[in-house]
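Render this sequence as a predicted structure.
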Amino acid sequence: MTVAATVKRPDPLPAGSPLAVSVANLDIRFGDKDNEITALSNVSVNIPEGAFVTMLGPSGCGKSTLLRCIADLVHINGGSVSVLGRSPREAREGRDFAFVFQDATLLPWRSVIDNVRLPIEVGKHAAGSFADPAELLAMVGLKGRENALPHELSGGMRQRVAIARALVTRPRILLMDEPFGALDEITRDKLNEELLRLWQETGTTILFVTHSIPEAAFLGQHVLMLQAHPGPCEGVHEGRSSLSAFARHERHGRIHSGDGASARSAGGMPMSNVVSSGARAAPASTPRKVAILDATLGTLSKNLPAILAGLGLVVLWQVVIWIFKIPTFMAPSPADVVLAFRDNAATLWRNFLPTLLEATLGFLFGNLVAILLAVWFAHSTTAEKAFYPIAVFIKAIPIIALAPILVLIFGNGLAPKIIIAGLICFFPTLVNMVQGLRAASPAMLDLMRVLSATNTEILWKVRFPSSLPFLFAALKIAATSSVMGAIVAEWIGSSFGLGALIIEATYNFRSPLLYATVVIAALLAVVLFALVSIVEAKVVRWKPAGSH
């Protein structure tokens, strides 16, 4: 069935207007032969340039599939699709269209203006063929929010950013897949009106998918109807006729946008009884010293349970030693350990520095190798199949058994200790990094495909930033494990370092020094963990406050 969407415009199109999209006898199927699902069957439609066409139909009828087919995101099983006289792939690579997804699909690690700039930074394009991102943000009402992160915006604001990003390439066609479906009615109505204004200003062809009959009628010059699954095209209906009147009546019943005197919310409450968020008084500025004091008290309050628990354990330790009169060589009291810190400060410091060096270099070495291998595995399934089992095999060898082998190969110097510390860090980072690189949102990957991004651009713009929370989770484990690896390596063969000092104190029954050394090693691990956490808070700054 062929449907010619000869759209009625405010300024009527001349006869034989050029087509923006032409679909003929389109068939789309998913799955294999034994479990095949037909998404679209024998769909044909022609849409002229400059039209605003909305697409309606029940859930599962293939509206989004048709849109994705036009955008070269879905494989065609039968029929043909032409976009501005070219194949969907050629149109995609030529930036003839832009796509606005159901979700805003903003990259959470990029600011608002950097999200709008994304299409400029990726793919092949002609120089000077883009709109100014700042001007587009002003056009969609987001001037002044250029440096905000997506999680700092409302849902409606995020969709405005998505629309600005789509318009930055000056596309001739705008494909919109239920972009306002998750928004409240008032925000949705406002964005619909802004979208109409943008269409009138730019003259871009728009194909808009929606489930809302009033929205379809209000926006579309014509409404394209799809039948229930597997959805041939039923026909095209007038958008701004009787349905349009119904849509406008319903919209003005929800909210009257005149002088505000008779405005009402969707629930009928007079708007005069609702305090506007924009009318709230700004909080008084807090003096800097008071702000610092509040932050300090907040940190202490947050960590108070841990502090009290630690003090309680120390007191219990001292009481047990005192009640049961346990000899010092078996279990020293906290007071004895403090005295050991004082009497052996120079010895502790002299052995602390080598362990710090070994743990730090092992941490850097093991994690760097793990990250590079994970990136390689993400690019090459063959490489993963070949080398991932080897990494698992090496991990399965106990470090205590592997350490003597490394000492025999590399000698009793610094190298085997760094390698052992690195091996302990290596595997958790490799596993988490591979998982993180593959955890990128499918919608973000679709966005990059629409932008014709290369694999390298996808890696650095999407996959690697998406993997950072996974990476830092592994780095926190590695930070503490690297200290353990350095100490184990020192046990095997070393005359210096905290591990060697632990062995010496044990053989000489110097229990206070032994305990003091263990405390130093634990504090080193805690400090490294805290440093990684601080770096995470600075780097993964798109996570809302309190989620680190």
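Summary. The mean pLDDT is 81. Residues 455-492 form the longest helix (38 residues).
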